[in-house]
Amino acid sequence: MTVQTGVIAGTYICTDPVGGSGSFVTQAVPELALDMTGIPGDRHAGLTRRSTAREPWMERGTVLRNDRQLSVVSRAELAQIAAALGIADATPELIGANLLIDGIADLSRIAPGSHLAIGGSWGGNGKFDGQALLRVEAYNRPCRGPGRKLAAAHGRPALELVFPKVAASLRGLVLSVTVPGVVRSGDTVVVREPVTAP
User: Fold this and answer.
1) Residue 144: its pLDDT value, please?
2) CA-wise closest residue to 110 among 17, 64, 172, 23
3) Which residue from 21, 49, 24 is spatially nearest to 37, judged by alpha carbons?
4) How far apart are CA 167 and CA 90, in angstroms?
5) Which fold has domain 5-192?
6) Nearest-5° angle of CA 177, CA 107, CA 41?
7) Directed axis angle between helix 144-154 and helix 159-166, to 10°?
8) Cα–Cα distance between 28 and 183 in angstroms, integer?
């Protein structure tokens, strides 16, 4: 099995609480000190969350394990989105991302159950000696919210409806914390795929 590696290219936080102004926009910070709730102070921090339209088979507001503690996007995939939208860039902040990664091909297609092992010098061989371990929970389906933010930033209202179509298969992943630690730009990232039956 080939080990995929990349690097953290940016770290971001959203301090607007759920029920606040409704903004999910993040801002760049030098580092993220993760605990088992995710990013303390971030909009999506917590051990649990309430079900939303993403779980149409459940009663709205049902308490669930928080499988959406962090959001990660790929610089290359954001560039593809921007090119398709005809804009200079699709910034991680307007997408609501917590982590920006360089160097991992097809980030949005990494299988749920995989882990992103951040930091250290192990390179995917031997024992993990890094700072944090994040579990890939799911693909982060695109919605109109980021499209609305991009539309406003670029003065093109039509982008709100176009974004979900253009960003399909490129929107990134949602993660939960398996091993807490500090994550900084420049940290290495190793993708550990889940073990499956032979």
Assistant:
1) 86
2) 172
3) 49
4) 10
5) M1 Pyruvate Kinase; Domain 3 (2.40.33)
6) 35
7) 130
8) 13
CB atoms within 10 A of CB 14: 23
How many residues are recorded in the chain?
A: 198
Q: Determine the residue type at 54.
A: R
In this prediction the pTM is: 0.94
For residues 49 and 147, what is the distance between their CA atoms, to the nearest angstrom? 24
Rounded to the nearest 10°, the torsion over CA 75, 127, 124, 183 is 10
Which amino acid type is present at position 30? Answer: P
The answer to whether the beta carbons of residues 55 and 124 sit under 8 Å apart is no
pLDDT in tens, the chain (198 residues): 678 999 999 999 998 766 555 678 999 999 999 999 999 999 999 999 999 888 999 999 999 999 999 999 999 999 999 999 999 999 999 999 999 999 999 999 999 999 999 999 999 999 999 999 999 999 998 888 899 999 999 999 999 999 999 999 999 999 999 999 999 999 999 999 998 888
Residue 169, φ and ψ in degrees, nearest 5? 75, 5
Residue with tokens 């099995």: 1
